[in-house]
């Protein structure tokens, strides 16, 4: 089965809202080009939101980060989060696409390689199909609510989102080594946040 392209995802969002599909998102002559671009923006925002939780496909453990000649560690622009477990650097975050040592209040204290768990933002078409589908349905419901302000249609699409959420969580559980007290199952139980709502 072919994977869903970004254009196909945008067109599905438009169809959910009863708007005509587009052959090309960038075609400026289309009467609904504004709606298509809004749908694309919603899709990309929802993709970033879902990927931020750290999925099997975009979360890498023990990534080597190396300092440059200025003792700074550059952070790629598609990095969503970094978790560093290194006793030499107990309190580190990233700012301006570089690691920042909160203890030393400095960018320039990294003299050796360090290991980190890194969550990356992947392009929509680099994601596995179960993730694409989940993002697509979540984005479609967001678009219906924000663009059409149609709460009845938004509610009607709830079952479709629930099915996509179930498939998404099942595949994530099968492909990941989740700790019983970590990951989405525990987060949902502890927070009492349903999969179908806007909370992760």
Report what the structure shows.
The protein contains 6 helices and 5 strands; from the N terminus they run ααβββββαααα. By secondary structure, the chain is α+β, with helices and mostly antiparallel strands. The protein has 2 domains: 119 residues, no CATH class; 62 residues, no CATH class. The strands form 2 sheets. Strands 1-5-2 form a 3-stranded antiparallel sheet, with no helix packed on it. A hairpin with a 2-residue loop joins β3 and β4. The radius of gyration is 20 Å and the shape is elongated.
Uncertain regions spanning at least 5 consecutive residues: 184-200
- Indicate the proportion of strand residues: 5-15%
Helix and strand content put the structural class at: alpha+beta
Q: Kindly report the spatial arrangement of strands forming the biggest sheet.
A: 1-5-2
User: pLDDT average, as an integer?
Assistant: 85
What is the helical fraction, as a range of percent?
A: 40-55%
- Reading the helices and strands in chain order gives HHEEEEEHHHH
Estimate the global geometry from the Cα principal axes.
elongated
Distance between the termini: 28 Å
Number of domains: 2
Radius of gyration: 20 Å
């Amino acid at each position: 089965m072919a994977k869903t392209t970004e254009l196909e995802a945008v067109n599905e969002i438009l169809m959910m809202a009863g708007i005509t599909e587009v052959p090309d998102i960038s075609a400026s002559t289309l009467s609904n080009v504004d709606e298509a671009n809004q749908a694309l923006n919603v899709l990309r925002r929802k993709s970033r939101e879902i990927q931020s939780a750290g999925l099997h496909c975009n979360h890498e453990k023990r990534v080597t980060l190396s300092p440059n000649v200025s003792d700074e560690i550059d952070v790629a622009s598609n990095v969503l989060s970094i978790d560093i477990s290194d006793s030499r650097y107990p309190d580190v975050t990233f700012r301006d696409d570089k690691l920042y040592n909160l203890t030393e209040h400095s960018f320039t204290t990294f003299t050796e390689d360090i290991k980190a768990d890194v969550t990356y933002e992947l392009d929509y078409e680099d994601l596995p199909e179960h993730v694409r589908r989940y993002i697509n349905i979540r984005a479609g419901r967001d678009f219906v609510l924000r663009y059409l302000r149609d709460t009845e249609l938004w509610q009607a699409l709830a079952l479709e989102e629930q099915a996509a959420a179930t498939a998404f969580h099942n595949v994530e559980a099968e492909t990941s080594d989740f700790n019983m007290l970590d990951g989405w199952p525990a987060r949902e139980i502890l927070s009492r946040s349903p999969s179908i709502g806007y909370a992760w």
